[in-house]
TrEMBL record:
One of its GO terms (molecular function) is transferase activity. The keyword Transferase applies. It comes from the Bacteria. It comes from Pseudorhodoplanes sinuspersici. CDD domains: AdoMet_MTases. InterPro entries: Methyltransf_25, SAM-dependent_MTases_sf. Pfam families: Methyltransf_25 (PF13649). Keywords: Transferase. This is Uncharacterized protein.
Amino acid sequence: MFSKTDMRAYWDSIGCRDDNEKQIAHQPTREGFLQSGVDNLPLIFPCGCESIPKGGTVVEIGCGKGRLVRVIAQKRRDVRVVGVDVSDRMVEMASEECKEWINTHFSVSDGTNLACLGTNTADIIYSFIVFQHMPRGAVRSTISDAARVLKPNGRLIFQVQERKEITQPDPPDTDYRSIRYYTSEMATALLSYPLSLTSTRGGGHNLFVEAQKSI
Ligand SMILES: C[S@@+](CC[C@H](N)C(=O)[O-])C[C@H]1O[C@@H](n2cnc3c(N)ncnc32)[C@H](O)[C@@H]1O
C-alpha cells in the first residue's frame, strides 16, 4: 500500500533538486524546458487552446512547475487555469513561475483526489506524464474525483504509456516514479459513470484517453 506522505515527500525531493526541469520533462536547459511546454500542448489539445470554452476553467492534475499551465494561461487570458500537484514544492515553484499570469491558480492535493476543487467547476481536466508514475489505485480515485469536479459535459483528457500487452509485474506501490504501463483496454477501463469514453488517440509513450461527463 502506498503512503500519501511518502508520495509527497518523493516529489518534493524531485522539486528540490537543481536539475528539477530535467527530472520533470527531460529538459536539461531552461530554454528547452520552456519550449517543451509549447511543443507538448498540441498533444493534449490537438485542436488548439481555442477548443477551451470561453471564460472557462481548465485544471491540470500533476502540474509540476507549471510548464503547461503557463502556456495555456498566456494563450487564453480569458480562461482560469488551475494547477494541482501532490508536491508542495512543485506548487510553490509553479506559483512563482506563473506569477505574471493572474489567470493561474495552484493547489496541493493529497495525491488521490481533487478535494481542493469544488464540484461542477471545471470545463476541462487534463493530465500529462503523471498517471504513468502513480500507483494504479491513486489514478483510479483521482479520475473518479475528476468526474465530480467536471461540469456537466466537461471533458477529461489524460495520457498514459501504452503497451500492447503487459508482461512485467508492476513496480511496488511504494515506488512513486517507475512507469506503470496500460493497454488501451486498461486505460479506458479507468473510466466509470458519469464519465464516458469519447476517444482514444496516439499510443506508445503517449496514449491519450478522452472522456466526457454525461450529466
Ligand atoms: C513528470 S512531472 C510532469 C509535470 C507536468 N505535468 C508537466 O508536464 O510539466 C510529474 C508531476 O506529477 C506530480 N504527481 C505525482 N504523483 C501525483 C499524484 N498522485 N497526484 C498529483 N500529482 C502528482 C509530481 O509532483 C510532478 O510534479
